Amino acid sequence: MLSTHHKQSIGIVGGLGMLAGADLFFKLAKAIAADRETAAGHDVVFEQQPFQDGGMDGEANGSPNRRKLYVFDMIRKLEARGVHSVLLPCFISHTFLGELQAETPLPLVSIMDALLAHLRKRHPAPCRIGVLASNYVKSKGLFERYFAARGYEVVYPDAELQDGCVMPAIYGGSGVKSGHLQGEPIELLHRACEHLLEKGAQAILPGATEIAVVSDALQARGVSIVDANRAYVQYALSCRGDAPAKPFKVGVIGGVGPAATVDFLDKIVRNTAAGRDQDHIKLVLEHNPQIPDRTAALIGDGPDPTLALYAACKKLEAGDADLIAIPCNTAHAFVERIQPYLSIPIVNMLFETARHIADRCGNRKKVGLLATSGTIASRVYQDVADAAHLMLLTPDDAHQALVMEAIYGERGVKAGYLEGACREQLMQALAHLAERGAEVIILGCTELPLLIAQSDHFSVAGESVMVLDPTDILARRCVSLSRAQL
């Protein structure tokens, strides 16, 4: 028995033309069944829902909006069903194929690439090709974009035959789209083909997948017309279907806390060199303020936030994030519990801060830490400092109480206060560490940079210290990693 473990599933978006979709499915299934090796390596998934194009009927002034959204929804369904590549039996949809490809990690196999590959084997350029397409496809210059730059001259039927033969043969009440595969539509298309041959066309390409359905009937009349669906099938089975390069995406666990999340996102934007919107980094945010308090879990009997943090990470993973950033120092006490079960890395803000000190702070080895009691009790910064051969200083009990009040107090930063008592309390704790010899002070709670900005030369109690913002360091690292992937 042949193994099916590594089959490549090809998805077909149906409903864009009932007969065209069925014709492509039939020809693909037939091609797979005809070859034992191909049959062992491929299977087909067909996805279709009722679809009406809103009376577009291929007209030049029609709007493809409804079609765009329908095709996108079908691609998402195919993605959920585990397919490896997608076929779109619809030339109108190929006029916005790039828009679709930008929003899916699945390779969308181009029927235009298939026709180009077919022509290069049988009618290499320079060559004049005749095209039978809808007014809409013609107006968008789809064939010119693909073929003219490659040495092919594209010709269409004159306006009288375009409107009197091609359009009714496809869309008319007795047209192919209505299920008429003999008689009048064949006569009309044959007349248009003869006209193209008179104009010097050496090969004729369908620009509507419905025409591919009746290509055999036209070939039987001696017309050299390509069966676009058969060429599409052959190309789809021969090409590797590699996933397209996708924009790098940073996943962010937000809500821990909410103001710090906004601050982190702002720092991502401000640290990105961009001349336009599209130059900025793609982000996906899981903002969940209901994640249990990390400090309460570490130093009290508060609920464990591990599962909530893990669930947030998995949502980001499912959202195609390439890495995860958590703008919360205390949450990093739980990272080692979560990371082994994820397929993407969590960028460790604490490690990045230690790296920053080693790279940027010269010989400064005495590092003060202003953080929640939970972060201090977890020793996550202590472990990082030890590995980097740094001496970590933390406030005494009285000054640590001031730090906690500045963060969690009724008039603390988590309650929305950015001036007054909370800032004064933090300054007292900072001066305390400076007086004890701290040369660098880490603002080790992501709310604290809302009260004091990062500075290379911060003067406090007559001492000059360097104040570091791990949120900014993390933002810069995420920007750097994303740029490295371009």
Task: Give structural notes.
The protein is of the alpha/beta class and 486 residues long. The chain has helices at residues 18-34, 36-41, 65-80, 91-94, 97-101, 111-122, 135-139, 142-147, 159-171, 184-198, 209-213, 215-219, 228-238, 258-270, 294-299, 306-318, 335-338, 349-360, 373-378, 380-387, 397-408, 421-435, 470-484; strands at 8-13, 42-47, 85-87, 108-109, 127-133, 152-155, 203-207, 249-254, 282-287, 323-325, 346-347, 366-370, 391-393, 440-443, 455-460, 463-468. The strands form 4 sheets. The protein has a 5-stranded mixed sheet. The protein has a 4-stranded parallel sheet with strand order 2-1-3-4, with helices on both faces. Helix 1 (18-34) crosses helix 13 (228-238), helix 14 (258-270) packs across helix 23 and helix 18 (349-360) crosses helix 23. It starts with 7 loop residues before the first strand and ends with a helix.
Provide a concise account of the structure shown:
By secondary structure, this protein is α/β, with parallel strands linked by helices. About 45% of the residues lie in helices and about 15% in strands.
Name the descriptors:
486 residues, alpha/beta, five-stranded mixed sheet, four-stranded parallel sheet, 15% strand, elongated
Give the uncertain stretches in residue-range form. Answer: 1-5
Order of strands side by side in the largest beta sheet?
A: 13-12-14-16-15
Structural class designation: alpha/beta
Evaluate the radius of gyration.
Answer: 32 Å
Oligomer: single chain
Please, how many helices? 23
Question: What best-fitting shape do the alpha-carbon axes yield?
Answer: elongated
Number-wise, the strands total 16
Query: Average pLDDT value?
Result: 92
Distance between the termini: 44 Å
Q: Please outline the major beta sheet.
A: 5 strands, mixed
How big a fraction of the residues is strand?
15-25%
Task: Indicate the percent of residues in helices.
Answer: 40-55%
